[in-house]
Amino acid sequence: MTRTLRRWAIPAVVLTAALTLSSCGSALGGSETTSGGDSSDRTLTLALSRQLTGLNPHNGGSPDSDGSVKGTVYEALTYLDPDGSVHPRLAESWENTGPLQWKFDIRDGVEFSDGTPLTAEDVVWNFQELLDPETKSQLGAQFKIYVASVSTDEPGVVTFDLKSPAIDLPSRLWNIYLTTPQFWQTGNLNTEALGTGPYTLTSIDLENGAKLTANPNYWGEQPSFENAEYKVLAAESARVSAVQAGEVDIALNLDPLSIGQFESNPDYDTTLSDSSWVQVISINENKGGPLADVRVRQALNYAVDKQSIIDGLLGGAVEPSQGQVIAPPFYETNPAVREYPYDPDKARQLLAEAGYASGVVLELDVPAGTYAAGAAIGQAVAQQAADVGITINITETPFPAWLSRQNQESAAAADLVYIGWGGQYKDSWAVFDPFTSKSRYKQSNITDPEFDDVVNRLQAATDEQSARQLADQAAQLYHDRAHTVFLWPGTFTSVIASDIEWPSRTTRYLYAQQVTKK
After folding, report:
1. Where are the alpha helices (DSSP H) in 235-343?
2. Helix (H, G, I), strand (E, B) or coil at 264
3. How far apart are the C-alpha atoms of 512 and 23, rounded to whole Å?
4. What pLDDT sits at residue 16?
């Protein structure tokens, strides 16, 4: 699908920065292109917007880096299709055998890429590793909250005994990837891989990308491309240049102002739309100081003119957030909760009431190249905040360093972080978890026992009606206490070679095996 962009007024310095960033690179249609021509031995080339941090299968992973590569070489019990619906993968079927128990039938005839057969015992070992008290991974931290044990007492069947109900357990398991105990003990988990997926890892350079080869012993359908390569192009200008030169087949996370130049190029198709995640400015309340006061946090929300930024820098592709950390189409928002309107006078009033009439100085951390127009959006927010007396100093950091900093204790993290977040499956009430006080993710540097309690009860709900009511309550609490600056749903941008097809998933996971030739 192709969409014509609208351009609107925004402070000149911001718009100039965005256009400068997106206009670098060679002319359209370089002399050697990836798209078109004989594709019999063609290597599928996919652009990533973040550096890789490692391929540990139990560590989750960003869709813009590790997560996309892991999902080609590893598999989980279940998988999610592009619209967020759950389907069988290494588990052929499952059954909810009681309020606190699920049973999964493991698929026969599956082998790891080294020829080792997949067994129910292998599956159990992987989940027991996540339950180990010594495991520090984010996936393990979440898994321990609701799972008591994982076992097998009948051939080919794995039993999950839970601490609390999880009516969406199959969906929650979609990215817990499986490997062998031997590889876990002897392999390099960050730079090697041993899974059951459609590709095997040929080589990896965490700063520059990874090369893959189709797994000849894969139990499922063979991918369309024998060879695939992920190229790390962390700068938005680098992705634009690579598309201009025909060096990549798919590039995501381009600045919406960059997309227009490819709309008339017959070698590529473009997309500009909203997505299933939300963009926010995470607020570090635990650091103390002005941000510990709800009035200052509310002032930040009133100070940002979301619509002008959307129109000027995001091509009008989205609407301002409803003041919630969930958004359609995956989630039904609370209709009683509305957006914080742009009201600089209200922002100044709140700052004065909080004792900061003379101003506040804050630091905003933006991950370089990760989000469409991220740097320009940071500048726009800073300019608007300055109008009400809030000085925002921007730090733009390469993704690995940015991630490392956000994983520090609250005192060492930035005051504000520009970040996108969302669940991957429909009605994923676990989407609230990263915003709770207990979260190991750094979208949340807050302490709010009441919100935590509501989310805990939401995730343990046994029916859709009670889950809906608790989700509405969680949304209202988070809005009223202004634990974040609510911005807008994330923009989904893509440039795709016209001779291939990819089932665009707005969660941005870019799996090589899902790309087919036309």
Report:
1. 236-244, 256-259, 294-303, 306-313
2. coil
3. 28
4. 36
| Alpha-helical regions (H) of 77-152 | 120-131, 138-146
- pLDDT digit string, tens, across residues 462-500: 888 888 899 999 999 999 999 999 999 888 889 999 999
Q: Please, are residues 329 and 428 in contact by the beta-carbon 8 Å criterion?
A: no
The H or E element spanning position 14 is: helix 12-22
Residue 136 CA to residue 253 CA, distance in Å, equals 30
Residue 133: which residues within 8 A CB-CB, separation 6 or more?
none
Ranges of the chain whose pLDDT falls below 70: 1-40, 329, 423-430, 439-443, 506
**Residue 265 CA: distances (Å) to CA of 27, 28, 244, 455:** 12, 8, 9, 47
Q: Would you mind telling me the total number of residues written for the chain in this entry?
A: 518
Q: What is the pLDDT of residues 398-443, one digit of tens each?
A: 777 777 777 778 888 899 999 987 766 666 666 787 788 876 555 5
Residue-level pLDDT at 15: 36
| Number of Cβ atoms within 10 Å of the Cβ of 1 | 9
Give the CA angle between residues 216, 219, 220 to the nearest 5°: 100
Crossing angle of helices 344-353 and 294-303, rounded to 10°: 160
